[in-house]
Amino acid sequence: MSAMAALATKTKSSTKKRVTKKRSSRPSGGLRSYSTAMRFLETFTDYERMIRVGYNHTTFNLSRMQKILSAVGRPHRKFKSVHIAGTKGKGSCAHMLANMLQACDHKVGLYTSPHLVDMRERIMIDGQMIEESEFLRLLNQLVPVLRSFDEKSRPTFFEIITTIGFMYFAEQKVDIAIIETGLGGRLDSTNVIKPEVCAITSISYDHTYQLGNALSSIAEEKAGIFKSGVPVISVPQHSEVKKVLVKSAKSAKAPIKFTGEDIDFSYRFESSRSSGPHTRICLTAEHGKYEHLPVPLPGEHQAINCGLVLSVIDALKAKGWEIDDHKALEGLAKTRLPGRMEIICDDPRILIDGAHNPASIEALIRTIGQHISYDSMVVIFGCAADKDIDGMLEYVSMGADKVIFTQSNSVRSADPEDLAIKFEERTGRMAQWTRTLREALRIANSVVTTGDIICVTGSFYLAGEAKRIFTER
């Protein structure tokens, strides 16, 4: 039986004993099941699934977030944190950093977005998703607060999930939480914390409708997370971006350092018989020196992310955090990232990646070429309509031998027929399109042979849908 018919079964890891279970405190008349809770949350505005969203104090409102948090005891003030913003690499950095700190016996919360398969992926402690019963209990605590808002000022889906994450981290008494911004930084719902360190990943063009068409305006929004006295670490940036970050840091009275400049950093790609293709980095910071350290995630862009993470670790050491380098590096080596260069099927080989802007697609195509041996690559591509489609298609055309356009189950999805027409006009190459991912996978499976690979990319929603297909019974 082929893998397209016999789908992989989902395995569940055991619950970490360090996460304390609480008795249910669901009030009479409250939400009675997790599925009911999900349906309740669907009644709130979810900007992640909307085609066009204005970026202003009405749609993104920190005073509304502060009001919610105040009503539940200001949980965001009860744990230490690291705040991560940027265009690409936030999730990779968050997971690497969480693994390193957890390996040093710290209890670590992790808040990321979006999710691939299960919404609870966004809220984790020591690598374990929040349990459905815990999520339901915390949401029921929050329901009276949510119902106190009038219709025009109702909290958003993201604000609710962020609040539940903060409530969970505070209640579970995490030592530190790694918090990834959702959109931008300045008006993002997570921007209510005062972290130990701020980290800025690579900044490029994305969400231009909300953040602006200039790199400087995008950088300014990301720099909105800077806080007085809180050190900022950034990866190397475009000169225009660096200028804004330095100016913003000075204005916020936040010391800023850049890897590769203020922090000695270099990397190189290599391949050996024992380790295969991989990237190694060298980094010298004030409280640590790392030489020829293998990066656990594939791709040169992950080497840059890894350098940022090690620099954040150094900044935490400077603030008195107990971090054993040997343990931390053991944790780093175990980092695996769902939805990024993830093989979800071996026969045929199917890889998913949530790359959703030109820079990410370019990095993906380059990384596949460096790390995976294949005869021919079929790319199944679908993206949101408000993305830089021309930019992404340019890089898709460079790596794909055959392209099948499709769409995810999201109103933001670009029409696959339009994508195919645009691709053919730009490249002069033929492409296929279909309305469903399942049909795209069927078509791809019919044309690949043993040495080929299928790559599903263009959005986290499409990557997540592919993963769900292969985790169903």
Protein model, in words:
With 473 residues, the protein is an alpha/beta fold. It folds into 2 domains: 34-333, UDP-N-acetylmuramoyl-L-alanine:D-glutamate ligase; 342-469, Mur ligase, C-terminal domain (Protein-Tyrosine Phosphatase, Chain A), CATH 3.90.190. The protein has an 8-stranded mixed β-sheet, sandwiched between helices. The chain is globular. It is 37% helix and 17% strand.
Please describe the structure with a list of short key phrases separated by commas or semicolons.
alpha/beta, 17 strands, six-stranded mixed sheet, UDP-N-acetylmuramoyl-L-alanine:D-glutamate ligase, Protein-Tyrosine Phosphatase, Chain A
Number of strands: 17
User: What's the number of structural domains?
Assistant: 2
Structural class based on helices, strands and sheet pairing: alpha/beta
* Uncertain residue ranges: 6-17, 23-28
How far apart are the termini?
14 Å
The proportion of residues in beta strands is 15-25%
- CATH-level-2 architecture of the largest domain: 3-Layer(aba) Sandwich
The portion of residues assigned to helices is 25-40%
Reported by name, the CATH topology of the largest domain is UDP-N-acetylmuramoyl-L-alanine:D-glutamate ligase
Report the CATH superfamily of the largest domain: Mur-like, catalytic domain
CATH class of the largest domain: Alpha Beta
Rg, Å, rounded: 22 Å
Q: Going across the major beta sheet, what is the strand order?
A: 4-3-2-5-1-6-7-8
Rounded average pLDDT: 89
Shape: globular
Largest sheet: 8 strands, mixed
Tally of alpha and pi helices: 15
